[in-house]
Every structure is written in C-alpha cells, then in structure tokens.
Amino acid sequence: MNRLTAFYTGNRQIFSMIFHLAWPAIVEQLFQTIVQYIDTAMVGRIGAQASAAVGLTSSVTWLVNSPLFAMGIGVLSCIAVAVGSGDHQRAKEYGVQSLTFIVTLGIGMGVLLVGISPFLPAWMGADPAIRRDASVYFGIICAPMLFRAASIILGSVMRGAGDAKSPMIANILLNLTNVVLNFLLIYDSRTVTLGGMQLWIPGAGLGVAGAAIGTAASYCVGGTFMVIAYLRNPILSPRGLSLRPQPALLRNCLRIGLPVAMERLSTCLGHVVFVSMVTRLGTLALATHSIAITAEQAFYVPGFGMQAAASTLAGNCVGERDQEKFKRVTGIITGIAVAMMTVTGALLFLFPEFMMSLFTTDPQVISGGIHVLRIVAVSEPMYGAMIVLEGVFNGIGDTRIPFLISLFAMWAVRILGTCCVILLFGGGLEMVWVCMVADNITRCLCLTLRFMKGSWKYKFEA
Does the predicted TM-score (pTM) go above 0.90? Predict the structure, then answer.
C-alpha cells in the first residue's frame, strides 16, 4: 500500500491530467453506447430482419467514418505537439486546416455514398428480403456527411487542445436527438399506460427509415454544436486568421493521418468482408452477430476513454521533448485501462444473457449471443492495452508501422481465418468470433513489442 501511495504521489500531476482528459471521453463513450443500446433495442422490436438490415450497413458506416477519424487524428497530433511546446499560434493554424478536411471530405463522401446506397446491400450478398431497408437506411444516414465530418474532426481538434468536455456535450446532444426522434419516427401512434393513466404517443410508423432519419438529424445537431464550440475556444478560435489552406501544415497532418486512414480503411473494409462472410451463415446468424457486437461495446468504453487521454498526453510529451514522462504516461494509462477492462470483461462473461435480452426477445438470437460474448470477454484486458497503445502511437504521429500491424492482423488472422472456418471447415458463428479475438490479441502483442523496443524514440529527436 505504501508503494502504491508513493507511486501515486510521485505521479500525481500525470494522474490529474489523465483524469481531466479521460472522464469526459468515458462519459461520452458510455452515453453513446447506452443510446446505441436503446437504438438497437428499438429496431430489434421491429424484428430480426430489421436488425439485420441495420447491422448489415454498420460495418460500412465504420468504413465511412475512417477517413474522418484519421484526419482528425492527424490534426490532433499536430495540435497536441504544438500545445506541448507552448506554440498556441501554430495550434490555431492547424485548427484552421481541419476546416479544409471537413469541407472536402464531407461534401465529396456525401455525394459518393448516397449514390452507391441503392447497390450496397446486393454487393454485400444480403438476403433480398432486407436489401431495400438496408439501402434506405444507409442512404439517409450518409446524406448529412458534412455535419458528421464536422462533429468527428472538430472533436479531435478540441481534444488535441485539451478540451474533452465540448466533444462530450456534442455527443450527448447528438444521441439525445437520436433517441427522441427514433421514439417518434420508428413506431406507429400508440397508447401506453403509465401509473394507471392512458397516454397517447404520436408516431410516424416509418420503421427502419425512421431510425435512419433520427440518426441523420442527430449528426446535424452534433456537427453544428462542434462548429460553435470551435469558434468559441480560446486556444483554437480562428478569429483574425486567414482560412486559406496552408500546404505545409496540411502535409504534416496528412503525413500522420494517411497511414491512420489506410489502417482504418483496411480494417473497416475487413469488417465489411467479415460481415459479408457472416451473412453466408444466414439472417439469424447475422442478427445474432450484429446484436452481440452492440452488446459488447459498453464493456470497452473505459479503454476508449483512456485512449483519448493517451493521444493528447503523448503528443504533449513530444512537444516537451520528455521521453521519461512519455513512458510513465503510457505505462500508467495502459495499467488503468487493463484493470478497468478486466472488471468489465468479467461482468460480460458472467451476464451475457442479460445483455442480449436488452436488444431482442428472440430466444435463438439470445442463445447464440451468450456463447460469442463469453468468447470475447476473456480478451477484454488485452483489447484495453491495444486500444491505449494505438492512441499513444497516434498521438505522437508514429502511424506507419501500426498500420502494417493492423493490416496483417485483420487480413491474415481475422479474414483468412474466417474464410477457412466457414468455407473449408463449415464452422459457425462461435468460431468466427474466435478469429475476431485472435486479431485483437495479435495487434496487442505487436504494439506492445514495438513500444518496449523503443522504436518511437525518433519522434523525440526530430
């Protein structure tokens, strides 16, 4: 106990900074997950086909978000380094460059994705019965891509400057909007009984399309809030600066962000292929897989909260040219994340039936979900370490080798393994999830080895 007390006392400032940056990110992730639970449960009440239609495009949604998150990381790293070195003017200039990424990616991707939405479900080999709903859902949620780009990229910009509260508030507003509109748009008008009173609830009865409209409107709310917060931020506000792109600064952001974009694109494309392989197991397996993925998300919220803090603090350490502080920060955040996700993994292993029953009443879906959730639960601590190390390397701008590690783990371990399991051995959903867990463990081990070898030190010598 005395050693723990001495360790905390000696690193009190680091613990304070971690808490300052991590708690809003954890609240943001937790609230987003709770709302996604509600969203999935609402759609799940329509039926397994509706869940499958929405779940089919969820992996493509991750793919769509990849360039946005990647460019956000590129700007975050540059801003965090500038703030760490005390150069707030350069931080402002990097913030302005994010506007170029928002406009370019938001408009370009929006037009492209709405255009391919009618054909996407067929390309993914979906059952004809769910293609129309899947197409409508994807097209609607991709229409306000400019607002989605603003929400994601400016969220990273604000975190790079140490403001984790504004993205949290934006996310809360976004998700509250989604829940309220889903409640009004998915179901028909109905009468409910509350405390002996009859209450009439209006409803549009739009089903899956209603869920999509709610999601699209929520992106508009989140994006608008983040623009306002960015303009008011004392460190980043672009007032008085030219909004013209600066090629040298854009290149710095792209140098960091492009490997992240390639990593996320390859990973998310792998998820698309992964889901398309699951569709070969049937609509029931696809519904089980989609709901189990959603159920699992709450249990790695602590890891992603720690990742947000790790990225900013690691970038600050580069700006300060302090390697020892960098190693201490990484070790402390990784230890916290592993401890927290050991607890959440144990809870997931003990109560998988409860988690599945939150989203569906189908006994076959619940039964299948119990087995796969217990498989993934045992890997949660290693997944927490992987998430934090990924954030550390992103924060210091060391993104090329992590991209290659992710590429290998996704395609050589998860996808090739899944192909062999399904096509050669006739395995089911449980073995597919074993391949998914093997992917995460491989990435964790490779990133840990890279950190321990000190391959990142060149970033402190630049």
Answer: no
Go through the chain and tell me how many residues it has: 462
CB 197 within 8 A of CB 218: no
Chain CA centroid to CA 275, Å: 17
Cα end-to-end span (Å), the chain? 40
When pLDDT is averaged across residues 140-159 and rounded to a whole number, the result is 93
Token couple for 88: 């707030």
Give per-residue pLDDT as tens, 62-75: 778 888 988 999 99
Nearest-angstrom CA–CA distance, 334 and 175: 29
**3-state secondary structure at position 202:** strand
pLDDT reading at 13 higher than 90:
no
Residue 245: closest CA among 420, 66, 97: 97
Report which of 452, 443, 453 is spatially closest to residue 403, judged by C-alpha positions.
443
Task: Give me the residue label for tokens 């609830």.
Answer: 201
Is residue 429 within 8 A of residue 288, CB to CB? The reply is: yes
Contact indicator for 315, 396 with CB cutoff of 8 Å: yes
Tokens 């400057």 — which residue?
Answer: 161
Query: What b/e sequence results for 90-129 when a residue is b if at least 16 CB atoms lie within 10 Å of its CB, and e otherwise?
Result: bbbbbbbbbbbbbeebbeebbeebbeebeebbeebebbee
State how far the Cα of 240 lies from the Cα of 231, in Å rounded to an integer.
Answer: 11
Q: What phi and psi, each to the nearest 5 degrees, are found at residue 200?
A: -90, 125
Q: Are 443 and 408 in contact (CB under 8 A)?
A: no
